[in-house]
Amino acid sequence: MSLRVLNPNAEVLNKSAALHMNINAAKGLQDVLKTNLGPKGTIKMLVGGAGDIKLTKDGNTLLKEMQIQNPTAIMIARTAVAQDDISGDGTTSTVIFIGELMKQSERCIDEGMHPRVLVDGFEIAKRATLQFLEKFKTPVVMGDEPDKEILKMVARTTLRTKLYESLADQLTDIVVNAVLCIRKPEEAIDLFMVELMHMRHKFDVDTRLVEGLVLDHGSRHPDMKRRAENCYILTCNVSLEYEKSEVNAGFFYSNAEQREAMVAAERRQVDEKVRRIIELKNKVCSGNDNNFVVINQKGIDPPSLDLLARAGIIALRRAKRRNMERLVLACGGEAVNSVDDLTPGCLGWAGLVYEHVLGEEKYTFVENVKNPHSCTILIKGPNDHTIAQIKDAVRDGLRAVKNTIEDEAVVLGAGAFEVAARQYLVNEVKKTVEGRAQLGVEAFADALLVVPKTLAENAGLDTQDVIIALKGEHDRGNIVGLNQHSGDPIDPLMEGIFDNYSVKRQIINSGPVIASQLLLVDEVIRAGRNMRKPT
Amino acid sequence: MREIVTVQVGGFANFIGSHFWNFQDELLGLASDPNNDPVFRNQCLNMDVLYRTGETQQGVLTYTPRLLSVGFQGSLGSMSSRGLLYNESSPGPSDVVTWSGSVSTHASAPRKKNLFLQRLYEEEQESFSMINGTSSGKSDSQREIQDKDIVEFLDNHVEFWTDFSKVHYHPQSLYELGGLWMDPQEFDNYGIGKDAFSEGFRGEEICERLRFFVEESDHIQGFQFVVDDSGGFSAVAADLLENIADEYANTPVLLFAVRSPSSQMNLRSRKQTIFRELHDTVSFSRLASFGKLIVPVGLPFLNESKASTLLCIENEKPYHCSAVYAAALHSATLPYRMEPVGPTADSFDVFGAVDINGFVQMLAGQARQNTVAILDAAMPAPALNGKQHEQSLLGNLQPLTPEVSEDVEDLQAVESMIIHGALRSDGQRASISEVKETVNAIYGHAITRPMFCHLSVARCPLPIPLPYPSMFGNLVGQYGELLNSPFVGSSPRGSLEVHSIPMAVRLRSSSAILPFLENRLGNLRRYGLQRGALGAELLRNWGFADDELYDMGEMLSKMVSTMKPHSEISSDSD
Q1: Distance to chain A for B216, nearest Cα, Å
Q2: Distance between CA atoms of A358 and A314, rounded to whole angstroms?
């Protein structure tokens, strides 16, 4: 081999060895993630060397936690992670689909087929499947008032694969309401407008939706009220702390009095800003018992806090940048960048503002707002890993709802789509294909079945029985999925099991691409930078 | 009180940080022990500047560093990323409350606590049981783990920075870049780290944690930022700094760009050399554009340098090298932690307090606006008086900053010198005024004098905590005094033999930094900017467009020209 002449240290794997390396890596990764899939999958508890615990049922998280060394596996993992970035779900499905494609190919290649032909077949099958998906999907009309039931069904399907049923059902309502809360007609949904706040407190079932905002800090003055009703909310980005001027003040005074005078003068500027805020408060709050809350992105130092407290104002400093946006969406009004812009018009409104203290952690609830366009999902749990897992699940749920609204379509779940697509490929597409590429189409079709197969396997059912039953029903023209409890075919429509259209499409799109690339590798060369470390 | 938030990014920065916080912890311990040398009890250092007071959910009060540390996943060794203070009861397998289906557990082999950490744990348990009135009555001699063994063990077996840390950290403090397991050899250039910050929720989570510490500070005086700039972490740090500059615009950042000697060795091919030099250039100019004052620290051959003539250091051990830099960092940061006294009153214990802003203005804000400072250290500092020693203080102050020219006459140099725990030649602690007089006298006699020198003095020396490496030469005595005749026996002396040492460090803004800057500018021009330059492709891969590189070159050449003695004449030579 010519490379050996150039670099005697290079390690070369020839054609079949290279292929088998890739296939084995894909199968290995599939084996790891397989048990995750579906509502009967296994949750993984990862315990680190120092005893840190991580709970996950999410393929994406698991892939990140594994130190993957094999280059092929890394490639597959990247595709899967990209899948998550794009559509928020389907990582596990992508990995097991790629693994299954490789497994099916291995069989054909062992029988003497050339990978090129297989890949051609994949390409045809992929296009046909995508077309089929267009026909198969269930369109959902998203008017001004989206069908809440269908959104709930999608969210429930996702959440039930991550959390136990009753908690999943509880969260279903939460995530759907959250997305509908932030949804504005004619605008893309920005999920960042749903704040995820967590408290290590009580139990997972205490997780709730706060229509309004929860901030993870409180006022820093002992005299400020801990609870206030009927509040004006001033959202601002104005520094209320005494900052040394940029020029070194050291050269401008020659004795202690002058220095004091300079400090006093600079202090006055800060006080002036505080005074302007107090003025506004007096203007809007005189003659009624409304309260006034300042939420500032910049700092507020103790003297300023003191002035504000004396004026009966509640003040929070160093709010998250994103909360500035959220506050305005939740409470109304607008964010103010300078005290010169202060008008009653820029104030927001909240019916209730109160503080909750847990040890050194303080939370401020801004609730009872009118017509909110931002909200908070407050996740509670007894320990960090529980919270982290619920958080992951909530993120997935939110994405699922968002996808549904944007796709304006859903796909029947529980393996129904995969079986239907497989039957379509085998019964109709295959006939139209000439020559050996037929085998590629067939391999692709069989690989699709990995989803219902794995679902059945994880539920402890007999895979063959299940697949035969499902195929039979489909041939009779009934679109059915798998009942995970009994193993019988069910109608996903009746059970309300729906998957995201965009997720499915992404899986069908990216899986064969990676599989084809891996199949067409005919030499693996290990040389260059990595040669330093003998493996 | 003016708070400081410390940020440590990267492996070696965390090693330094670990030693740094050990010093602080030791000082805290010594201050509360009434049997100790009074000099430790009246440190006049305000620890609240660096530490925060907190409370666990159980209502136990805590006192932890106001620190954010960023490292690889798995770089914490046997320490939990949440620390031990705020721990909930240890969870069992039945604890999976969110899933009713099957659970599979994948446990990596638990990392065993090393001798030192075991001992810490035991001591903690003991003091806990003492409070409960059931003293187990173990005296020092009965203790199973001897100090000697610990010192020896640490000297040979330190793998993670947590292995020798005796400090409790807040759960928000230790951040691991999730999913970034890579070993440092592969994470060794700017390009690899360029997306490490923005990927997933990482950047947001880091900023959130930083905000946690800033929000609770009444009046933050600045950030003390230590970054390991030898690899991809400089990109992480640059992104973080950009965020800080954005969010906390008027808060000064004092930036220490550190690197270990081992990261600068093993360059075999020419390609690797170009790689490295471009990395150095890029990472320096990116970091320098965000810090108000940047101090590059880290010599390529620490053990052969003049700064370590009294020390025995092994270059390959980050545990050793970081100890030297941590000591210098501790001393250099003393002025903004000193208990402020009235403008007229003088304290017997400290002198020359100045806050970060003042510090930065003094060194970087003068006429030349030079933002790069050199760190010099004398470790341990020589005795003060006695005629023959007069030059030795200045002579012993040797740079820890690489690529610095020696013997430069710079009339516009600005310095901040910090001396603490200085001894007289008779072995007694010198008073503040004695130190001041001596330094005045030294500069009075010196041939080259800086334009301006700010002096900070403290009486409290640098305490040597137990987990400090054995790296003092045999000329160093128990209190850090320099002996005339060496101790018999060749083995280096460690924390059991040396209790404390006097330190002198100096930060200077001087044209001695020119070679450092010129090398970087030269490399950028040679490998990046020139037509058909060898590294142009590489820089593009790292995500730098041509005009960005051009700006970078502009910035560097401006830095160089401000430092050139004749810059006024040929200011527009470009």
Answers
A1: 8
A2: 19
